[in-house]
Specification:
heterodimer; A: alpha+beta; Beta-Lactamase; Heat Shock Protein 90; 3 domains; 15 helices; 20% strand; rod-shaped; B: alpha/beta; Rossmann fold; 21% strand; globular
Chain lengths: 601, 128
């Protein structure tokens, strides 16, 4: 019996133990307190608490009170599944005995265990899980353990269960965290090494360490040959690494590596000696146990990763899971590295193409400036001396001589125009073409251009008729470029109109735009070719017998575009063509226009 | 003024192309000018300093000294600082033309030019 004065003390002891459990003490200290509290509260001489390991095969901790170190050391390992302890743990029952020595179940205690008579044993359980047991012996004064003792001890056993579970959860969490931290390193390494070789070089030692293994090797799937090729290896002997990397290869489905790739599932080999499908080199190295995992991307296998140990080892589910997680990250990193490499080679290829294009551009620029200078200089001589010859200044020429020299002159002009066109286009392409706008009297400009083409038109028998419906005397445009446009349209019209035909040119201005229309009764252009008229060097099928380069309309369009205008062609083969140019009246520049006009007036 | 006048105005032509020199000489001599020529800038500068011509016709695109460099040196020499200059340029070389005017050229003619057109410009500069 417990006296009433003892009760507050007991409660206080219980309370203190409870507080201790919820504070941050190590499990060892906590269990020690629980055992001491149990002995104190029940007036026992001896108390012990055993914690079963997770596998349930033995005690991982054994905490005692009431005996000296030497005696305790002599107890040795306690059985878990037999005798009294077996009852406590296996059956999860509380056991109260008057004389342990005479009880038939008192088997299994080691020979050096202190002698016990009265006995109170209690399982430590929580949520149906057995964590161990708590037992007390030799209540002071030889009395039996009573119900109050059972109650007190069961509270303590419950506290012990919570303490053990907490400790295990904490440890598990710490292990997970440390695993996650280590896996994070794998990810970090992966991100830090975009080069595949660098990546593997950094990754393998890390994975080997993560699994506490001795070897690590990585096979990558060659998509073309459908073979797994050893890409990286960490073996005790670098010579063997060299023999393996790039040389050992398995078709998908063959050998263990091939099988892991084909099935996409891990394979663990505890004993290499008695397994087929393993490369002889693995035995040569002295590897005893291996764990293979596939390198998986969501939809496909990228390769196979394996770690090995030089002493026999049973790879646990945890090990496999860890290796699998490392492999996932490695696979991601490998795909990442491959993408990076592909991207870089694309960028490099582009850079090479760019360099080549730049060089071509340079050659073109050089060519164009050479053409411009080297062709214009002889043209200057040819045209200049022709002018002197045909002017009769060095002697009268016969009609025949005049006629022949006229042909030379005309062809020099053609060459001259071609040089100008090529230089113009090269400036346009090089972004060097700029308009030099000024106020232009469009009616006057067109009248002058018509006058300039009249001799050629008359000679050919083509009538050019000008109609200025509403001239625009203050068009803000580049006068020489605009003259080029009109010249081009007129010369095309005359060129493609047979003798007896007509060319009409109309200028009309509205509020928003001014338009120039050139219509002819010439050969026309087949409908399906109209779209291509503005392409460089394009010549309509109806233009076969007429000289030209196919650059004129392209240049004309560029000039019209630069002015913010539009150009369109309507044509029917055999009937004639109509080219219409619309130019916007640039209002934003009205102020500039005005000031320029003031200067000129 | 006509071709026989002894006090004919002098025109210096500088161009690295002999054919162009001959062409300009033919045209301008027929029009009564005294024409002296040089086929490089250095010789042209020496001639200009010695002969102080009434007008210089300078080709812009020349190896070694360009026409623009010759122009700048003409302007730096007190003897030729006021000599009238017409530049021979290639069509489209607008920046050369702008630079030429900045340096003090009076006019320019683009290649290929008509000899008659050149004559008009020369006449205009020399008040004929």
């Amino acid at each position: 019996m417990v006296s009433s004065t003892q009760k507050p003390d007991r409660l206080r002891t219980l309370l203190e133990t409870g507080i201790a459990i919820s504070s941050e003490l190590s499990l060892e200290v906590l269990l020690q307190r629980i055992v001491q509290a149990a002995a104190l509260l029940t007036d026992s001489t001896y108390a012990a608490l055993g914690v079963i390991d997770r596998a349930g095969t033995g005690l991982e901790r054994f905490v005692t009170t009431g005996i000296d170190e030497e005696t305790r050391g002599a107890i040795g390992p306690l059985p878990v599944g037999r005798g009294i302890l077996g009852v406590l743990i296996g059956d999860a029952r509380t056991l109260k005995l008057h004389d342990l020595g005479t009880d038939p179940r008192s088997v299994g205690f080691p020979p050096h265990h202190p002698p016990m008579r009265t006995f109170l044993g209690m399982p430590i359980r929580l949520h149906g899980v057995a964590y161990g047991n708590l037992y007390l012996t030799e209540k002071t004064g030889g009395a039996d353990f009573d119900e109050e003792d059972v109650e007190l001890v069961s509270v303590l056993a419950g506290q012990a269960a919570v303490a053990i579970e907490n400790a295990r959860l904490y440890e598990a969490e710490r292990a997970t965290r440390s695993r996650q931290e280590r896996l994070q390193i794998v990810t970090d390494i992966a991100l830090a090494h975009p080069e595949l070789d660098d990546l593997l070089f950094a990754l393998l030692p890390l994975i080997r360490k993560l699994l506490a293994a001795d070897t690590c090797a990585l096979f990558l799937l060659d998509e073309d040959s459908q073979e797994l090729v050893a890409r990286a290896a960490l073996y005790p002997d670098p010579d063997i690494e060299e023999k393996v990397i790039g040389h050992v290869r398995y078709p998908v489905g063959q050998g263990l590596v091939g099988r892991v790739a084909a099935e996409g599932k891990p394979v663990v080999i505890g004993d290499v000696e008695h397994t087929t499908g393993i490369h002889p080199i693995v035995r040569e190295i002295g590897i005893k146990s291996v764990c293979y995992v596939p390198l998986l991307m969501p939809s496909k296998v990228v390769g196979v990763l394996h770690v090995g140990t030089l002493s026999p080892r049973t790879f646990t589910d945890d090990d496999i899971e860890l290796l699998r997680m490392a492999a996932d990250r490695a696979a991601m990193a490998i795909v990442h590295a491959r993408l990076f490499q592909a991207e870089r080679s694309t960028v490099e290829a582009l850079a090479r193409t760019n360099d080549e294009l730049r060089e071509l551009d340079r050659i073109k620029d050089f060519f164009v400036s050479t053409v411009s200078h080297e062709l214009r200089t002889p043209l200057t001589s040819m045209l200049g001396y022709l002018e002197i010859l045909r002017g009769g200044e060095v002697g009268e020429l016969s009609d025949e001589q005049q006629r022949l020299l006229e042909i030379v002159d005309r062809n020099c002009d053609r060459l001259h125009n071609l040089v100008d066109d090529i230089v113009f286009l090269s400036r346009l392409d090089g972004g060097l073409f700029h308009l030099e706008r000024a106020p232009v009297d469009l009616g006057q400009l067109v009248t002058e251009r018509v006058e300039s083409i009249q001799p050629a038109a008359e000679k050919k028998g083509v009538a050019v008729q000008l109609h200025i419906a509403n001239g625009c005397d203050q068009l803000w445009a580049d006068p020489s470029r605009l003259a080029q446009v009109v010249d081009n349209l007129l010369s095309n019209a005359v060129k493609f109109t047979p003798a007896g035909g007509d060319v009409f040119i109309t200028v009309a201005t509205s509020d928003e735009t001014t338009h120039i229309e050139v219509r002819d009764t010439g050969v026309g252009i087949p409908e399906n070719e109209v779209q291509r008229l503005f392409e460089r060097f394009f010549r309509a099928s109806t233009a076969r017998n007429v000289q030209g380069t196919g650059l004129g309309l392209s240049i004309t369009k560029s000039i019209v575009d630069a002015h913010g205008g539009t150009i369109s062609v309507q044509s029917r083969a055999g009937v004639g063509s109509r080219v219409t140019v619309h130019l916007p009246l640039v209002r934003e520049l009205a102020a500039v226009n005005d000031s320029a006009a003031e200067v000129t007036t | 003024m006509n071709a026989s006048t002894t006090s004919a105005m002098t025109v210096l032509v500088v161009d690295d192309e002999q054919d162009i020199l001959d062409l300009v000489r033919f045209r301008l001599e027929h029009d009564g000018y005294r024409v002296i020529t040089a086929s490089d800038g250095q010789t042209g500068l020496a001639l200009a300093h010695r002969e102080h011509p009434d007008l210089c016709i300078l080709d812009v695109m020349m190896p070694k000294l360009t026409g623009l460099e010759v122009l700048a040196r003409l302007r730096a020499d007190p003897v030729t600082a006021d000599t009238r200059v017409i530049l021979l340029t290639s069509r489209g070389q607008d920046s050369d033309i702008d630079r030429g005017f900045e340096l003090g050229a009076q006019d320019y003619v683009t290649k290929p030019f008509s000899p008659k057109e050149l004559r008009r410009r020369v006449h205009a500069q020399l008040g004929r």
